[in-house]
Design a protein that fits this description.
Blueprint: E1 2-13, H1 16-26, E2 33-37, E3 42-49, E4 52-59, H2 65-73, E5 76-85, H3 87-96, E6 107-108, E7 114-118, E8 128-132
Parallel strand pairs: 1-4, 5-8
Antiparallel strand pairs: 1-5, 2-3, 3-4, 6-7, 7-8
The structure holds zinc ion.
Zinc ion binds next to strand 1 and strand 5.
Length: 135
């Protein structure tokens, strides 16, 4: 498997507008995109630092994955996303090595990336996303 960089860090927040303020006014970053991902029931806001992005995730539905996460664990770091060359092969490779997958096939995520999640039970408790920029 060929990981190239940390694509983004996903952070679950209760209120996107308030969190954007923190990242902009305190940390001095600039939110360059806000996007709703309907099938994940989230609204996302993106910041860029070097090659890496911060992805803030606000739930649009208490029953969505982020809504449930915040209810259980509160706000905080939700997942880490690695950019990989050849996401389908990477998924097959980790699955063959016994890692439990949440997504057995890549699906379309925010910013038009192909994404797939590995199950935190197999990854030392860190929800792990593999993603690949469409060429
Ligand atoms: Zn993500």
């Amino acid at each position: 498997m060929e990981l190239t960089h940390i694509e983004h860090i996903g952070i679950a927040v209760k209120n996107l507008d308030e969190s954007i303020k923190y990242y902009e006014e305190i940390l001095g970053l600039k939110c360059y995109a806000i996007e709703e991902v309907k099938d994940q029931k989230v609204k996302t806001a993106f910041f860029k630092i070097g090659q890496t992005k911060i992805e803030l995730l606000e739930s649009t539905d208490p029953d969505g994955p982020i809504g449930k996460y915040i209810e259980k664990k509160g706000e905080g770091i939700h997942h880490i996303a690695f950019h990989v060359n050849g996401i389908s092969n990477a998924l097959k490779e980790v699955s063959d090595k016994g890692i439990k997958l949440i997504d057995t096939k890549p699906r379309r995520g925010a910013e038009g990336l192909d994404i797939a999640f590995l199950h935190p039970k197999s990854t030392g408790g860190v929800l792990t996303e593999l993603c690949e920029e469409k060429k």
